[in-house]
Amino acid sequence: MVVKTIAMLSIYAVPYALFMTGLITNFWLVLGLWIIMGIGKAGVGFSVMHDANHGAYSQNPNVNMYMGYLINILGGSAINWKIQHNVLHHTYTNVHGMDEDIDSGIILRLSPQQKHYKLHKIQHIYAWFLYGLMTFLWITTKDFRQLYRYKSRGLTKNLKNFNLTLARMILAKVLYYVVFLILPLMVLPFAWWMVLICFVTMHYTAGLILACVFQTAHIMPTTQYPEPDESGNLENDWAVHQLFTTANYSPNSKILSWYVGGLNYQIEHHLFPNICHLHYKKISKIVRETAEEFNLPYNSHPHFFKAVWEHAKMLKQLGRATA
After folding, report:
1. pLDDT tens digit string along 12-49?
2. Cα distance between residue 165 and residue 157, in whole Å
3. Helices (H), strands (E): how many in the chain?
4. Whole-angstrom Cα distance, residue 7 to residue 4?
5. Is the pTM of this model over 0.90?
6. Angle, CA 315 vertex, CA 268 and CA 44 arms, to 5°
7. Measured between alpha carbons, how far is 159 from 287 in angstroms, rounded to an integer?
8. Which helix (H) or strand (E) holds 138?
9. Does the pLDDT of residue 323 top 60, yes or no?
């Protein structure tokens, strides 16, 4: 994990250092470096921050806490991420109204319980453009809206001081803009709009990668969208629920597994989120055998592009009014 952390942070930081120090000044080469930064941004999120905020990076809670804060240098918020991902997504996976990962407002229909609009008929076409905008929401309004929404729902009670948390979030956003936008605008020998194109390209690259990896784990033809009964209870217990709502892909790809932090073993991650992702491949053999023993689903696609194709088919299916 230490080696991987150094590698991922290097993919994110070294390109920045190369163009900020003037070692590379050709615009097209600089643009390529920003794209590499986008790849590194997603990689840090997958392989370092994700484990840390699940308490799975280290046995030392302080190490997990500080490594989890790396999401702040990616433009996000560790506080919000833990609530949205750890609490809501991992507890109520694919449950409409609870799992915010399947709630994109009216512009995308990501669950069959969501209201249908005419524009959803072509969402399998335009969704890919919107996916690239994911991290733009982090650096603009999403984190602030989330924090106040979570406060109103009583999900921030463990925060010692809400106003202090808000102030720290504002400071983190300001520092992010200073380092990754204002300083490049001041230092790089290009017109402001050229620097802005580089900044946007980095975010779009990271957003598209992040979305493709996470969406192919849950919004698939093989996964289900359980609905609670009148008492608010789900049909299956938590562990079985994860098997019905989650899918793996590319189990034999060492390179992909390394880059995405084992998230191609999404089933194992959902069952054992507090275990470091380096162990998922070995755990997967036990999970698959146990699922088969109890006649439970174990959804797995042979490779990543097959998973992306199946996700596209699911978007088209959900785009129909009768889905």
Report:
1. 999 999 999 999 999 999 999 999 999 999 999 999 99
2. 12
3. 17, 2
4. 5
5. yes
6. 45
7. 36
8. helix 134-138
9. no
